[in-house]
Amino acid sequence: MRERSVIVHPPTKRDGRQVWVDGKLAGAARDLRALTRLLNTAGWADMDEVDVAEWAVIEWHGGGPEAWSLWTDPWPASARLPGVGRA
Q: Is 8 helix (H, G, I), strand (E, B) or coil?
């Protein structure tokens, strides 16, 4: 049996984040709730937003489950070097 894949691309100004499931465009999501609906439609029923946010199968590009707009910083503060990126 082939392993399934989910890729969530970086946010765009117009469409949110493109979501690819098993190599095919499944749609776009503007938030975690929309991503959860897309995945439910793609065959992963009974998953909620917490399941999706913590699911290791998802390959997040341009930020994790908390990054949904171009202005969301994809790097958590704990990942930054001290003194870099602060005014």
A: strand
